[in-house]
Amino acid sequence: MHTARRTHGFTESVIRGMTRLANQHDAINLAQGFPNFPAPDVLKQAAAKAIRDDINQYAITWGAKHLRDALTRKYAEWYEMEIDPETEITIACGATEAMASTLMSIVDPGDEVIVFEPYYENYGPDTILCDAKPVYVPLPVTGHIDLDRLAAAFSSRTRAIIVNTPNNPTGRVLSREELLGIAELCQQYDAYAVTDEIYEHIYYEGEHIPIATLPGMRERTVTVSGASKTFSVTGWRIGTIVAPVRVTDAIRKVHDFLTVGAPAPLQEGVAVGLEVLGKDYYETLAAEYRERRDVLCAGLLGAGFRCQPPEGSYYVLADFADLSDLPDDEFSFWLTREVGVAPVPGSSFFSQPEMGRRLVRFAFCKTVDVLKEAAERLKALRRND
Ligand code: GLN
Asked: Domains in the chain and their CATH numbers?
């Protein structure tokens, strides 16, 4: 059977494959990043009410007005960004579709897209689907981006750079200096910044700075975020895109023909969440994640992994070189099967698998009891016990 060439450049999602393996072995799934705790009641009630009120037909293709208006207020309150909800917002089916639709709207075949490495696995296939060339630049887990190295990666062929902060999988929260460095290069080379800010409310150090708020960047930034992580509704698939009018025009067309639109009643649920939940909700969200982070990191260090507590997001990239000589994928399968804890193999975050051979990623978007049980199971790894 013929399958299109553009799908041959990438394999299936390793992250989602690990979820299937975890389920098969009844392992604690610290692979795919989705919470095991409930979404806020206000969102659930508002979505259920919307269904009962018969908001069950297509929403406007670029998003329900209620949600676009709520989002406009959110960006003004949090980041002092002025957005026109009629011309500068698109609601997508998750940040995943938001990123893909954005790249398809701005990238031409042969263009280059700069991607920090390690990277969330979707960005590779996203650039391949656009027939673009990814150009990888290291993002150190500790320490800052080497801006000279980044500058060397830019050229007249660079159409965009993907900026994911707080970062998956490194946990880095990019500093103002790093973002200013990226912004300067985008302007110098007339490139777009396409951001993935899905973890914008989950960080423990520094601050979250949307690159769109830096001087000269609003006109060349596509700001992607969504409800999944902020409101613990990864299955709702509600992503958001803020972009200049001309770019929004293009994104809306791609989004329309790919999806027709995001789920109407769930958009109502998210709109109400944005309207009703106050700063205390976001503070509690981050505080609870900090506690989960500390429980997992202590468990990993106690078991013999080497890792740093992340500055943001809900992942820990851990080095297992002191524990096993297996390559990352075999170690991950073994850990899932024999120890009952599933991570993601590090190589899935790198363009060259060798670079991730000693690494695995653990997610800590789980209740503390589950993380403590995972830590307990991981004690089995301690060599001299
Ligand atoms: N972003 C999450 C992760 O990295 C979820 C991935 C997914 O399957 N959408 O695990």
From this structure: 2-32+280-383 (3.90.1150.10), 41-276 (3.40.640.10)
